[in-house]
Design goal:
Mean pLDDT: 84
Low-confidence stretches: none
Shape: rod-shaped
Distance between the termini: 185 Å
Strand content: under 5%
Number of helices: 4
Order of helices and strands: HEEHHH
Helix content: over 70%
Structural class: mainly alpha
Number of strands: 2
Length: 181
């Protein structure tokens, strides 16, 4: 059946030609004429100039935006460089602070060791001084006790062996020694 319809459409096409108005202008010519008139009206109303003006305005606006974007990019780069420099300075300062803190810590540790050594030496000296004082005190007590014992022993010996005649001789010798002076 498809073959039959195809044959009918070919037969219809063969019997009918292109439609023409006034017997010689076909549809393609009318479209061409309408297009030429449309283009002439566009040119007469200066539409291409208006379109070009609008495009120029749009180009100028885009160019302005690009310039602004370039300025913003330059500002952003300068800010980035500034902050990178600040960051580098901050890192350097932090490193210096850490180095100073390490040095101070070492100094404090060394001072604490020196202070502890000095304290130990002072305490040792104080202990030695106390021991020496205790020894001197003990020696003085021993001497005092010895002197007291010797005095008591001498007094007892003198009392036992010394009489009035010996006292008189001693007193006379003492007076003679004083008179010679």
């Amino acid at each position: 059946m498809a073959d039959f319809l195809f044959i009918l459409s070919e037969a219809a096409a063969a019997t009918h030609g292109e439609p023409k108005s006034f017997g010689f202008i076909d549809a393609t010519a009318w479209v061409s004429i309408a297009m030429a008139i449309f283009i002439a009206i566009l040119l007469w109303k200066k539409v291409p100039a208006m379109v070009a003006g609008m495009l120029d305005n749009k180009i100028a606006e885009i160019s302005k935006q690009l310039n602004e974007a370039e300025q913003l990019r330059l500002e952003a780069e300068s800010l980035k460089a500034e902050y990178e420099a600040k960051l580098a300075d901050a890192a350097k300062e932090a490193e210096e602070m850490r180095a100073r803190a390490d040095a101070e810590a070492e100094t404090l540790v060394a001072k604490a060791k020196a202070d502890a050594t000095a304290l130990i030496a002072r305490r040792k000296q104080m202990a030695e001084d106390r021991i020496a004082a205790a020894e001197a005190n003990a020696l003085a007590e021993v001497r005092s006790a010895a002197a007291k014992a010797a005095t008591e022993a001498a007094a007892k010996l003198i009392a036992d062996k010394h009489d009035a005649k010996a006292d008189k001789a001693l007193v006379d010798d003492a007076i003679a020694a004083v008179a010679k002076r």
